[in-house]
Every structure is written in structure tokens, then in C-alpha cells.
Amino acid sequence: MTYAAETTSETCRTKTNKRTAEMAILRNINGSTLRDRVRSSDIRKSLEIQDVVRWVRERRRAWNDHISRIDTSRIVKISKEGIPGTNRPPGRPPKRWMDSWTSTSQEAN
């Protein structure tokens, strides 16, 4: 679930999908089902597990710190700081990686 989580952009849909998959796994570990009507926060508290979206956010910040320290000739650094020289297709642009980890709206969710 967390494979390449540091390098992908985060949208509301991906956050929901991660939380849903995490809770399915945690409910199985806890031995409860949806019919038991146990709150997700209670399950997380009993298992002492951090929310997956918050964990990914921490990993994304660590990855950004790592990228900022590496040499400017590396492809990862070039792709992070570079601006594409082509025209974009019409419509709303997709959310980029940099937008997802710097967004203040991400802190509340």
C-alpha cells in the first residue's frame, strides 16, 4: 500500500482509497467486522497504529528533504525542479507531487 507513496501526488480519491484499504486490514487484524460498528479511531487506538495518510505525508517530507540534498545533476533533482518545455493539453492540470505535499488543506484531512 505504501509502495512509492513518497513520489506520487495525493488527491482526495487516493487518500480515501488508502484509508479504506488500511481499515479493511486493521479490522481483520482486530477481529471485528463492519457489522460490529466499531469506530475506525477506536480500532486505530487499540492497535496503536498511525493513520496511513499522515504516515505518507511524513514520508513525503522526508523524501523532499532527501531530494533537496542530492546533486543537481541527478535526474530526480532535475525532474523535481524542472519545468516542461511543451504545451499542456486543455483542461484542468493534474495535481502535481509538489502541490500535494505543500498544500495546507492536506493538514486538516
Largest sheet: none
Overall average residue pLDDT: 84
Number of strands: 0
Low-confidence stretches: none
The gross shape turns out to be elongated
Oligomeric state:
single chain
- Compute the separation of the termini in Å: 19 Å
Helicity range: 55-70%
Structural class: mainly alpha
| Total of DSSP H or I helical runs spanning 4+ residues | 6
**Radius of gyration over alpha carbons?**
18 Å
The SSE string, one letter per element, is HHHHHH
As a percent range, the share of strand residues is under 5%
Overview of this structure, please?
It is a single chain. With about 110 residues, this protein is mainly α. Helices cover about 55% and strands about 0% of the residues. The chain contains six helices and no strands. α1 crosses α2. The longest helix has 19 residues, at about 10-30.
Task: Write the SSE topology.
Layout: H1 12-30, H2 40-47, H3 52-69, H4 75-81, H5 97-102, H6 105-108
Short structural summary:
The protein is mainly α and 109 residues long.
Keywords:
single chain, mainly alpha, elongated
